[in-house]
Amino acid sequence: MQFDLAFFAITIPAVIFAGTSKGGFGSGAAFASASILALVFEPTVAVGLMLPLLMVMDVHALKVYWRKWDWKLSWIVIFGSLPGVALGALLYKDANPDLLRFLIGAISILFVIWSVVSAKGWFVKVKNPIGTVGGLAAGATGGFTSFVSHAGGPPVAVYLLSHPVTKTSYQASTVLIFWVINMLKAVPYAFIGIFTPQTLMADVILVPFAFIGVWLGVKAHDMLSERLYFNVTYVLLTLTGIKLIWDALS
């Protein structure tokens, strides 16, 4: 990893984009940054580089949304995430880079499909709030996809949004949930060797941009059109997902 102009041209926008999502748009789109970085770095480098920055963003966002979350819903998801994180660690331990590229690319494409289908109302909407078992399942799925590519947003969103939560309560709940999940991921990341001296040095350099991204997200929470933000996200994820899958298969 060379800390040259190309490195900063790629990483700085990716980190700011992730922070913006964390700070104002439910955290779900933050994983687009890992997908983008996986285009130019090995998948393990991409996720290892992003996790400490995501954890910094989580702490900053927690201060803004402190105690505005739904405790019960959040902790059901967090408890359910434990087996998902464990499964992700087992897979990552022996996975080759092309498999990881394929998984990150596939998750990126599936995220876009899920988002479009949800926005169009093409799936059968849940008439009643999803229960505890469903919340645990959402947590397990989110824990696994979060471990692999920092993409735990969709299953968690399905569960939370089946309940009568406000926009701010939903945002605060996702901040709390992924703060805990990211801390859970950090331990196996360290043991597997995903963190390296180079990725940690890069994190130190990029921390200011993580704060800038969260600050922009908080400001944009009530100002910027969610439709515009997520449309940009969907385009980025579609392009990067296709490229990652192509690279993995070729």
Describe what you observe in this structure:
- With 250 residues, this protein is an all-alpha fold.
- It has one domain.
- Helix 6 packs antiparallel against helix 7.
- The mean pLDDT is 81.
Short characterization:
It contains 10 helices and no strands.
Radius of gyration, in Å, reads 17 Å
Distance between the termini: 24 Å
Number of helices: 10
Please state roughly what percent of the residues sit in beta strands, choosing from under 5%, 5-15%, 15-25%, 25-35%, 35-45% or over 45%: under 5%
Total tally of structural domains: 1
Succession of helices and strands:
HHHHHHHHHH
Helix content range of the residues, please? over 70%
Main beta sheet strand tally, sense and closure: none
Structural class: mainly alpha
SSE inventory with pairings:
Layout lengths: L4 H20 L7 H6 L5 H22 L6 H24 L2 H24 L11 H18 L3 H9 L5 H26 L4 H24 L5 H24 L1
Helix pairs in contact: 1-3, 1-9, 3-8, 3-9, 4-6, 4-8, 5-10, 6-7
Record keyword descriptors for this entry.
mainly alpha; 10 helices; about 80% helix; globular
